[in-house]
Specification:
heterodimer, A: alpha/beta, Rossmann fold, GMP Synthetase, Chain A, domain 3, 2 domains, 4-stranded mixed β-sheet, globular, B: mainly alpha, Non-ribosomal Peptide Synthetase Peptidyl Carrier Protein, Chain A, Phosphopantetheine-binding protein (chain B), Ppantetheine_attach_site (chain B)
């Protein structure tokens, strides 16, 4: 069945993945959260009810619907239901602050915002409480099941917000056909099976988390969504639910290892995957020590094209530091500063082309033109990732780092500009400089202010989600200037170490 | 029973939004003082090592780590049960 679904000609809309799974194995469990399980048939039914509810609420094709919530069965039903209604789904994680939500609402101009905060604290007049919405969706005699709106393959399915080198977040426009193409290309490498149980503690607003939904449906596997409540006993939770696959970012891996050390015991985990932020060598070694039966599959990607490369299971033993080969049907080029192809082993910018490259940034033509460049000869779009790396002579990619001031923290992509901008919005802060993390220290916020460091961080914590809030803040009377009149970041950086 | 200095030092290290010169109130929400999941997991490890105790599985939920007072209450109950060396 899996092979038929993968090759089935009828997948032209993301919801088809769910509907195929529901037709083929409707009675099998699809998704589990802290409160219970749904089979594929139940998930499909709830997504139809939600689609009809959207229709009654005046949402029509092309409208954006923002959902800011913890990962849950309802979240997944809203994702599919929104697409079924022809609307554009805009997922946001539970850590999204009102300040960040305001930025997204101004940019996406959604018809509707649904949030699981009670009461909804949003300034957006359109915000609805998730609980209330679902009381209406579930009401007997409520909305009749909805099939699905016609959508062209090129229509937008998702807007995925991500940080750029600019202060405000921006959205990657993800059309149905490209989401499906990327899902199938990744599935061909990861090979989730019908009996897999995929344990997901990643936010569903993060594409690594979100695509677990599609990968599971494509394979007919079961997705188990964890909330923060499980963080102190991840190894026990994995054992209790019989997890076989666990997608990891470093912070999650560290928490899982802490819990496995306290609570050693059998595990059914057969595969760890990683993308989003590289797992350090020490963490890889500890995962192998505590989970000797599990393979590790390293990957690399960016929201702008979902996934760039996937390494074979345990391929890091043979090619340490590699993040694998390009997805089949896609191409990775390494371009030097002059824009010419680099020789094997030579470092340059990672540039990607293929049917997985998304349709640019939402309502940001200049930014789109800078990153998604058309080849003058062929017209092919090449995604300039801004990341640096090299290919070896066998076509394996090695990631070196980012070329701009963006970085990852707790698996979240962010930039100095974004954090500095929020810090400058704090009353009493005159100037702010964010020193990105290095090999030797975490990021440090430097501010000119009369406030105390703790006051600055506490206020910043109300504006930004935890991954974007530094643990360390240094207060200065003024910032020194470098020779060319700019803030002397090198001096600040030396101060931060001392 | 008021907590000891070791506990206060371990907990403060996990609370970036609390200034060294500010008191640590027993009923303040630790989340509001900047603790996150990673810090809570690490705090659990260091507290267990420092006091040579083991938190039972059914205490590993957010209520235990909600405030300094709730965490100390669970911890002090644990080491009052441990045999004294």
């Amino acid at each position: 069945m899996t092979a038929e679904v993968r090759q089935g000609p009828a997948l032209c809309h993301v919801v088809d993945v769910l509907d195929h799974a529901a037709a083929a194995r409707g009675g099998e469990l699809a998704v589990t959260d802290d409160h219970g399980d749904w089979s594929y048939a139940q998930l499909a039914d709830h997504s139809r009810r939600f689609a009809q509810w959207l229709h009654h609420s005046g949402v029509s094709a092309g409208d954006r619907v923002v959902v800011r919530a913890t990962a849950s069965r309802e979240f997944v039903a809203m994702l599919y239901g929104c697409l079924r209604a022809g609307a554009v789904f805009v997922p946001l994680g539970p850590a999204t602050t009102a300040y960040q939500l305001g930025q997204v609402v101004a940019d996406a101009q959604p018809r509707l915002v649904i949030t699981d905060r009670t009461p909804p604290d949003e300034t957006a007049a359109t915000a609805r409480s998730l609980q209330e919405v679902w009381a209406e969706v579930r009401r007997p005699g409520g909305p009749a099941p909805h099939t699905r709106a016609e959508a062209a393959p090129a229509d937008t399915a998702l807007l995925i917000y991500t940080s750029g080198s600019t202060a405000a977040p921006k959205a990657v426009v993800s059309p149905h056909e490209r989401v499906l193409w990327a899902t199938r290309a990744v599935a061909a490498r990861l090979r989730y099976q019908t009996d897999d149980i995929v344990l997901c503690r990643l936010p569903l607003a993060f594409d690594y988390g979100l695509y677990q939904v599609f990968l599971c449906a494509l394979a007919g596997a079961r997705l188990v969504l964890l909330s923060q409540a499980a963080d102190l006993r991840l190894a026990a939770v994995a054992r209790e639910c019989g997890a076989t696959v666990v997608p990891l970012v470093p912070s999650l891996a560290t928490m899982l290892l802490h819990s496995a050390r306290r609570d050693p015991g059998p595990s059914r985990i057969r595969l760890f995957t990683n993308t989003g932020e590289e797992l350090p060598h020490a963490v890889l070694a500890q995962l192998r020590e505590h989970f000797p039966r599990a393979g590790i599959q390293l990957m690399y990607g960016t929201t702008e094209c979902k996934r760039i490369s996937v390494l074979e299971v345990d391929g890091d033993r043979r090619r340490p530091g590699s993040v694998g080969r390009s997805l089949d049907g896609t191409r990775i080029r390494i371009l030097t500063a002059d824009g010419v192809p680099a020789a094997p082993g030579e470092t340059g910018e990672i540039v990607v082309s293929g049917p997985h490259v998304m349709a640019g940034y939402w309502r940001a033509p200049e930014l789109t033109a800078a990153r998604f460049r058309s080849d003058p000869q062929t017209g092919e779009v090449r995604l300039h990732t801004g990341d640096f790396g090299h290919l070896d002579s066998d076509g394996y990619l090695y990631f070196h780092g980012r070329g701009d001031d963006m970085f990852k923290r707790h698996g979240v992509r962010t930039s100095a500009a974004e954090i500095e901008s929020a810090a400058r919005d704090i009353p009493g802060v005159d100037h702010a400089v964010l020193l990105p993390p290095t090999d030797r220290r975490d990021m440090v916020l430097c501010v000119v202010t009369t406030l105390t460091p703790a006051e600055v961080l506490r206020h910043l914590g109300t504006l930004l989600d935890p991954a974007r809030v530094p643990d360390q803040c240094r207060v200065f009377d003024r910032f020194p200037l470098s020779a060319n009149g700019k803030t002397d970041r090198a001096w600040l950086s030396r101060q931060a170490v001392s | 029973m008021p907590w000891d200095d070791r506990f206060e030092a371990l907990l403060r290290a996990a609370l970036p939004y609390l200034s060294p010169d500010e008191p640590l109130p027993p009923d303040a929400e630790l989340v509001d003082l900047g603790i996150d999941s990673m810090a809570a997991v690490e705090l659990l490890s260091t507290v267990e090592q420092t006091y040579d105790v083991r938190f039972p599985d059914d205490s590993l939920h957010r209520e235990t780590f909600r405030t300094a007072g709730t965490l100390w209450a669970v911890l002090s109950r644990l080491f009052s049960q441990e045999p004294t060396p």
